[in-house]
Amino acid sequence: MKVNEAHWRRNIYLFLTSQFLTGITSMIVQYAIIWYLTKETGSATILSIATILGMLPMALLSPFVGPLVDRWKKKALLIVPDIVAAIFAIILSVSGGVFHVFPVWLIFVSLLMRSIAQTFQMPTIQSVMPTMVPDAELTRVNGQLGMVQSANMVIAPALGAFLFAIIPMQYLILLDVLGAILGISFLIWVQIPNNEKIDAALHMLHNTKLGLQQLMGNKGLWYITITGAVFMLLIMPASSMYPLMTMKYFQGTVGQAGFIEVLYSSGMLAGGAIIGIWGNWADRMKPVIFSLFLVGVPTGISGLLPGNQTGFIWFAILNVIEGVASPLFNTLLMAMIQQSYPAKQLGRILGVLNSILSLTGPLGLIFAGPLADSLGVETLFIIAGIGTVICGIFVLLIPVMRQYDIRLQERLSEAEK
After folding, report:
1. Of 9, 299, 318, 405, which one's alpha carbon is 20 to 30 angstroms from that of 210?
2. Which range of residues forms the domain containing residue 144?
3. Residue 115 · residue 58 · CB < 8 Å
4. Where does the sequence pass through the membrane (predicted)?
5. Which helix or strand (DSSP H or E) is residue 232 part of?
């Protein structure tokens, strides 16, 4: 049941505010941890392991989390992960204060537990959006959510780099606690409809299998999902090496690493603004396909740049282009998925889909660290760029993918008659 449309704007803006507050503090801490590992170890393998631990729970648990999201109270699923992140921030902070060092194993455990908590949070956010806004506004509001997430990514690296330089790490980590308090304070006022009560017994494997069957039965979306998984397999290893690319290959600093993240996120903010303002395209697959080329070409070129400050300047410019393209793929695809299935089924569908998209990233990262340490981090960017362009060509050439949104809009129009 939808929230009263007369009040939905106030409700959704309270929701977006809560996500901004928890998101920005969490990301500052996340960046600080990655920069700490980069500065202390300089190892691509360590960064790969850290990224894998951040992604693996999403890949392994999402299919089983989805059915729970369809049944459990949505607000609790949004609040509890923030509390878990705050608890582990305190543990890590106390460890740093007592032992004057952050054991790598404890950092890995903290990243793993934060990721497990977020595995519940992400599909919950994705599944409640269609219940909180009118159908006609779904793409636009998804764009606004993307803008909030992008704004976090613009502010967090710059603020994080500044705070990393002036605040001891054990105190900087406690920002997660502040973010949880502020975000939850806003979230308790948000009206989030729960799905109708499901009295049938919960069979995790059955629900997961059913979600997979529903996804596979939609051929166009299934092929897009597989292509997206290949895209993640190729691009994630390069994405995890951004701090190392800046600080080791281009001989830069933590501040420059933060600057790159700010530029990329500024591009994402611009891309989210484009969707939020002009996002009601008749055929959303066109910008989705275009975005693959806008990501692939600059990524490949980045790996060919000279390893000096001149190359860094061009690297920064290319990252703005990639940033603009990123929400065109993610946000528009999510809006199409949300409109492809009833809200009560979205949890299990998104659980399976998130798992597929998340699993390939860690698989690529297993080889990324050793490959970057032996051949150079820039090699990963060349491979990722060429592969992403091939993915774009593939989607462009297959009619069931290229025409997916046109067919979806036709089905939605017929259902309204």
Report:
1. 405
2. 8-190+201-416
3. yes
4. 12-37, 43-64, 173-192, 221-242, 262-281, 288-306, 312-337, 349-368, 380-401
5. helix 219-240
pLDDT in tens for each of the 417 residues of the chain?
Answer: 444 555 777 887 788 788 788 878 887 888 788 778 877 777 777 877 887 777 777 667 766 776 676 667 777 778 888 888 888 889 888 888 777 778 888 888 888 887 887 777 777 777 777 777 776 677 677 767 766 766 666 677 667 777 887 888 888 888 888 988 988 888 888 777 765 544 444 455 666 777 788 888 888 889 998 998 898 888 887 887 888 888 888 988 878 887 887 888 788 878 878 887 776 787 889 989 999 999 999 999 999 999 898 999 999 999 999 988 988 887 888 888 888 887 667 767 877 777 777 777 777 777 777 777 778 888 889 999 999 999 999 999 999 999 998 988 888 887 766
- Work out the burial of residue 167: count CB atoms within 10 Å of its CB; fewer than 13 is exposed, 13-18 middle, 19 or more buried: middle
Q: What span, in angstroms and rounded, lies between the C-alpha atoms of 43 and 11? A: 45
Distance between CA atoms of 258 and 157, rounded to whole angstroms?
Answer: 5
Number of domains, the chain: 1
Cα angle 250, 150, 78 (rounded to 5 degrees) comes to 125
Angle at 239 between CA 234 and CA 244, to 5 degrees: 125
Query: For residues 404 and 52, what is the distance between their CA atoms, to the nearest angstrom?
Result: 32
Integer angstrom CA distances of residue 59 from 63, 221, 345: 8, 19, 19
In a domain, 195, yes or no: no
Q: Assess if residue 15 is contained within a domain.
A: yes
Q: To which residue do tokens 């492809």 refer?
A: 340
**3 lies in some domain:** no
CATH of the domain at 206: 1.20.1250.20
Report the length, in residues, of the chain: 417
